[in-house]
Amino acid sequence: MRFTRCCQAWLMSVGLLCAQLWAAAPTQPVPLWPGSAPGDGAPKETERDLTKPGEGLVAGRKVLRLGNVWSPTLTIYKPSPTLDTGASVLVCPGGGYHILALDLEGTEVCQWLNSIGVTGVLLKYRVPRREGREKHEAALQDAQRALGLMRQNADSWGLDPQRMGVLGFSAGGHLAAALSNNHGTRSYPSVDAADQKSCRPDFAILVYPAYLTQPEKADAVAPELPISTNTPPTWTVITQDDPVRVENALGYVSTLQRNKVPAEFHLFPKGGHGYGLRRTDVPVTRWTDLATEWLQLTVLRKR
């Protein structure tokens, strides 16, 4: 019996290692647009990491703060075939619509998704905010286009077109909410057949989301987020000491409740903002355990 248990433990360890190695090999980035993105011309600046020396470590580690994105892409992170459930998640890093925290809230998130059998599709959307346009306008175009491409390529990418979600952090959480509530029509002229596919996420995960409500209007939901009964089921986490204000998430979740949208909400007392999924001794950094359970109950069991 002891030998059998040791073998089982060893096999599980080998399986986990294989899954991690498999997840470390993403596809080459897939361009979102066949030419220039809507409303954009030629790149005005060079895409690069804008992190300054010693700036903003998270859990003692550096963060890649990618700026000047003019050529948005998708990168697909597939889980091991032995774990693959067919479900997928469009991952939207945050950064105030100025930069993208590409590793903290992007590649590391895709690796976690792979560990639970979910394909992570990393969206490198356009930043910074475009002059003369709403803060999220270009990013929403990219997100709508991205989900359409995912559904168009579902067979070749090994994705279930009925189990495609979105996950966003901070400004990326706002983008995930914007996509969840703006999917009836595209916010740009149709480009090709991918734009005829639905861009409605089947579920959404919002992690310390920003910009969801209007503080000056008693935290009414932001006008660009027209929540309805067709808003997808949503999971949200935030802390009471988050500088974006807990009311920001509470107002959004309360409106989901009024519209009878299935929602799960987690509020922790401490943790601040921008922790990604890098674990520390602060309990909120275990949010992936709670999100995994929700996904298993609502998404992953539907195979």
Give the topology.
Elements: H1 2-23, E1 30-31, E2 48-49, E3 65-67, E4 73-77, E5 88-92, E6 100-101, H2 103-115, E7 119-124, H3 137-152, H4 154-157, E8 164-169, H5 171-181, E9 204-207, E10 213-214, E11 220-221, E12 234-239, H6 246-258, E13 263-268, H7 287-300
Parallel strand pairs: 5-7, 5-8, 8-9, 9-12, 12-13
Antiparallel strand pairs: 1-4, 2-3, 3-6, 4-7, 10-11
Helix pairs in contact: 1-2, 3-5
Task: List the defining traits of the structure above.
31% helix; 303 residues; Rossmann fold; alpha/beta; globular; three-stranded antiparallel β-sheet
Summary, kept brief:
Helices cover 31% and strands 17% of the residues.
How would you sum up this structure, described in words?
This protein is α/β, with parallel strands linked by helices. Helices cover 31% and strands 17% of the residues. It has a single domain (15-300), classed as Alpha/Beta hydrolase fold, catalytic domain (Rossmann fold), CATH 3.40.50. It has an eight-stranded mixed β-sheet, sandwiched between helices. Strand 12, helix 6 (246-258) and strand 13 (263-268) form a beta-alpha-beta unit. The longest helix has 22 residues, at 2-23. The model is unreliable at 1-24 (pLDDT under 50).
